[in-house]
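W.,

You were right to be curious about this one. When I first looked at the sequence I had no strong expectations either way, so I just let the prediction run and decided to look at it fresh. Below is the sequence, 336 residues in total, followed by the output.
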Amino acid sequence: MRSSNESGRSVIKLRIQQEDWPIDGAFIIARGAETIAKVVTVELQDGDYCGRGECEPQDHYGESIESVIQQIEDQRAALENGLTRADLQEALPAGAARNALDCALWDLDAKRAGTTVWQLAGLDTPRTLTTVYTISLDTPEKMAAQASKYHDWPMLKLKLGGGIDIERVRAVRAVTPGVRFIVDANESWSLDELVEFAPILEELGVELIEQPLPAGQDQQLTGLDINIPICADESCHSVASLPEIKGLYEFVNIKLDKTGGLTEALRLANTAKSMGFRLMTGCMTGTSLAMAPATLTGAMSEFVDLDGPLLLLKDRSPGIVYKKGLMQPVAPEVWG
């Protein structure tokens, strides 16, 4: 049964919760280490129907658990008065808070309509996706030891941080000769390092370099002549980012915590493709609830990095089924 207000409109009940999901060891990038994925989940209850979403606030983008929860709480009255996904794009800026609410609204709208999110969005039937598995930044020896456990997976992503990065990649390549590679510097390289590293990384079979330079220094890439494609991550949040990076990056990495949800992620994917960009879909750390909406842009992307649940000690249940880097289509019990 649905609850209604005096006007007869069904009233959505909003629930917000912080959850801590321990990481298996530590997730280390050039900016620091993380041992717990601290996420915010949203539930939107409309009678028998419940839509869910998850986000992970990012310090790097000026977010905190407290600020994101407050942003979501500030929309409570609007949600109770029928806030739509379209309304939400104007009500909140791109970021984690809007992501959790937007994905919960997609989930709720699909359940109300008795359909799936992919059908609601007019997309193709979901398929199995190949995701990278991420090897955290560490010494060459420790990265090689970690990577050796995944020697028979289809693709790895290596977190890099300058300095001895070539030694890191060489060490991992030695124990995973048949695995495809991409690398992610998380804004830690200089232009000189990029120019020096690129031809060696090409010889080592690296297929993509993600965000080598700090966001805001993108113009240094003008006229750069290297053979490995470069992907914008921190330099691309939403459609509004695209004009500034056009001609500098070949790929953009779509992350729902950056776009502020699936609605803008789909718009970013379509607009970027129309402008000649190629697509990658990525994630922050998080559970299957955060990965599930991202599989929709993942299906449109050449590279998929939705390994968040694989980095945790345990995922929520039910969750997405992974088999050596192959993501099975999302079950309705998970999301969507």
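Here's what jumped out at me. Residues 13-114 form a domain with the Enolase-like; domain 1 fold (CATH 3.30.390.10). And, maybe more interesting for your project: DSSP finds twelve helices and 14 strands in the chain.

Coffee later to discuss?

I.
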